[in-house]
TrEMBL record:
GO terms for molecular function: DNA binding. This is XRE family transcriptional regulator. SUPFAM superfamilies: lambda repressor-like DNA-binding domains (SSF47413). SMART domains: HTH_XRE. Residues 90-117 are annotated as: Disordered. Pfam families: HTH_31. Residues 23-54 form the HTH cro/C1-type domain. InterPro entries: Cro/C1-type_HTH, Lambda_DNA-bd_dom_sf.
Length: 117
């Protein structure tokens, strides 16, 4: 039974296609064929075609192997390296809210054993 293709939104598909095109250009600059890249990466020539086409069905591992063959695997360290949104959310959670700054917490009155204050 064939696997279902993942749902990919147009913007994400555009990103994958652009990545594939950059990988194709990098391969051509190195004067390597799809067959050679596939052999060195340990994937089929068809998988290299899929990676260069930005096929969302190609595994992340296939993309990584092709990057490694082209000497570009270090670029993976740049992915999500600067999580500006996450840091901002974290900073907001660390700041006390305006309500807690204004409110003074008073301890409850001490009660004796009979229950009267």
């Amino acid at each position: 039974m064939p696997r279902k293709s993942p749902v990919v939104f147009p913007q994400e598909q555009r990103l994958l296609s652009e990545l594939g095109e950059r990988l194709r250009l990098a391969r051509k600059r190195r004067k390597l064929s799809n067959a050679v890249v596939g052999q060195r990466a340990g994937v089929s020539r068809t998988t290299v075609y899929k990676v260069e086409a930005g096929d969302p069905g190609a595994t992340l591992g296939a993309y990584v192997r092709v990057l490694a063959v082209l000497g570009l695997e270090g670029d993976l360290n740049l992915l999500a390296a600067d999580d500006r949104i996450g840091r901002k959310l974290q900073d907001l959670a660390l700041e006390p809210s305006p309500d807690t700054r204004r409110r003074k917490v008073n301890p409850p009155p001490a009660r004796n054993r009979e229950g009267s204050a």
